[in-house]
Amino acid sequence: MISHFLKLEWKQFVRSASFGKSIALKILMGFFALYFIVCFLAIGVLGYYILKKQLPDSDPLQIVNSFLLYAILADLIFRYLMQKLPVMKIKPLLNIPIKKSSLVNYVLGKSAFSAFNILALFFYIPFAIVLIIEGYHTTGVLGWLFTMILMIQSVNFLNFLINKSNAAFALILGLLGSLIALHQFNVYNIASIGGQVFDVVYATPIYAIISLLILVVLYQLNYKKLRAQVYLDEGILEEVAEAKSVDLSWADRLGDVAPFIKNDIRLIWRNKRTKTVFLMSFLFLFYGLIFFTQKTYRDMPAMLMFASLFITGGFALNYGQFIPAWDSAHYKLLMSQSFSYRKFLESKWVLMVSMTALLYLLSFPYLYFGTEIFLMITAGAVFNIGFNSLFLLYAGSFNRKRIDLTKGGFGNTQGTSATQFLVVIPLMIFPMLLFWVFNKFVGYNSGFFVVAAIGVLGLILKNYFMNFIEKKYIRDKYAMINAFGKEA
Amino acid sequence: MITIDTVSKKYGKAEVLNIDALEIPTGQSFGLVGNNGAGKTTLFNILLDLIRPTTGAIVTNDISVHKSEAWKKFTGSFIDESFLISYLTPEEYFQFIGDLRGMNKADVTSFLSQFDEFFNEEVLEKKKYLRDLSKGNQKKVGIVAAMMGDPKVVVLDEPFANLDPTTQIRLKKILKTLTENKEITVLVSSHDLSHVTEVCERIVVLDKGAVVKDIVTSAETLQELERYFAV
Predict the structure, then answer these.
(1) Exposure string (b/e) for A424-458, b if CB count within 10 Å is 16 or more?
(2) Does pTM top 0.80 for this prediction?
(3) Tell me: the pLDDT tens digits for A356-370?
(4) Is B152's Cβ below 8 Å from some Cβ in A?
(5) ipTM score here?
(6) Could B87 and A271 be called an inter-chain contact, meaning their C-beta atoms sit closer than 8 Å?
(7) Is the CB of A330 less than 8 angstroms away from the CB of B85?
(8) Coil vs helix vs strand at B19
(9) Which residues contact residue A229 at a Cβ distance below 8 angstroms, ignoring those fewer than 6 apart?
(10) What are phi and psi of B66, to 5 degrees?
(11) Which residues of A touch B73 (CB under 8 A)?
(12) Which of A26, A99, A214, B37 lies 20 to 30 Å from A130 when distance is taken between CA atoms?
């Protein structure tokens, strides 16, 4: 039985859309995964020595233990937001002669191996090995490690029990907040007292049994809950959100492009991935804080230019690079309707430009860092509006990957191809380089002027470029219809 | 109205469509039948300039569909769910299409009021996005949208599939009224022989991309078709 399930899992993995990604993307994703693993490994191996050096009087294990309560709560919050039990996957297996109990055990058992549970082990295991090398009791450390592993699993199953309850989430959030507050204001350090429980496990490893009991109880609770829900109208039910129509008639003033603008606003707001892109663009506003507050970058104006472009360009970049793939699911409809292609492209342009302008308005507080920085942001905004928005439209005509909007938002790379990597060069590197050259060899202010001038030039020649872009889209129409029609 | 002139489509060496000549006069209700892979949808896609034919061209109302886009103004179509915008409610979708076809809000509302019976209170004001509607109700939306903006040509691929029996009968009524005045040309493909024979005055059978039968519908047509397909 299990071998059947494993075979299914293997096929799902190998044939999944993410596995079929381009090689560049695979390498990039692999690189990110590796980066996290190395980080955790490094902390695991070096953590002991760093703590010993910084706080020579205390026991590193006790320090780690005193923070474990925080780690557990933070882990729960993270999982609450990110990890869902994949019950939908068993739907096609329901009418096959497999006992429901084994289906439930399969889903639950599978979750024990999720990435959420694996990553932390890269810290705990090397840390435990270092402890043994440094002369801690082997049995004590093993008991402690055993407890850690069981604890991660317990958190895993606890999350599924509370996942649908907002009250539970608020409670955990409140608990974590008040623990940190109490600690900060030196009222009462509950976390470190809680940590002593883990000290006891180290001293008397037999207590590790308790965490095993907790895990077994949590698993049983999960099993009972899920076993009662293996019906299409219970747990395996796709939730249907009630449609909320907002009056967008104000957009009618935009004239011919209004229907497309309204459609785009709805597209952005009603699909997870586009919504993430939209909200993230406001986070990009804070990008400058990283660069402007650090002395090192003060002397590297080209890097500051880079940050300035990002501050106002978050939306144009993240949304613009997937034009027109956002509309891939209904591309055939658009292509059989009577409207000029120009209107469609124009609406995307208006959207990018107005969002960039809005982000620019919101970036006014950067005046705090001085007029020079603000001039830089202004130059970046003009460049984003004049050059980048047009360039992104042009680059979009090379998009040949369908985006399925119903798929999740964060970390979804659907629709990504080499185009997305190549566009970064003119969008980011080109203005940086220009700025650097003029700044270095001509003088400080000329850098801003040139970058802004390119933007202004783009605006002046907009019609000319738009004609060019429109022709390219019309020429590539059939290739796009064909590519967007294929399953992502 | 529509002239299909030596249209063929090849993918590599495989020929999926090869039609010498086919003339569809204005106001005709034209039915297309054939087994899977006969080339029905390919023909419709070429007619809508969504794919390019390997040879030949389709001319509709003196406009070669591949050369000009003027035909889009008088052509309404529904091929598959990629003609729907999944994240819109039916009302918003109709308004979007209406906007593109020069209808204002009042026009759209009065247009939709004719279809109350067809929608059967399952489509409008349900506070659901198109992606959350059942297949049948999605189809109703697509079919009605294809008739928006006074089209002269209406192209429907498999309109009867997924519809419940009552709605199938209502759709037949709608299609018959549409061609009553002999002004609107309707092209319908279907796997259901009895439906097409009932709705269409002319039926063309495609097999492996070629026209094998071209029949003016009569009382014997259904039997003739059934005999042909009972292999």
Answers:
(1) eeebbebbbebbbebbeeeeeebbbbbbbbbbeeb
(2) no
(3) 999 999 999 988 888
(4) no
(5) 0.87
(6) yes
(7) yes
(8) strand
(9) A87, A235, A236
(10) -80, -25
(11) 338
(12) A214
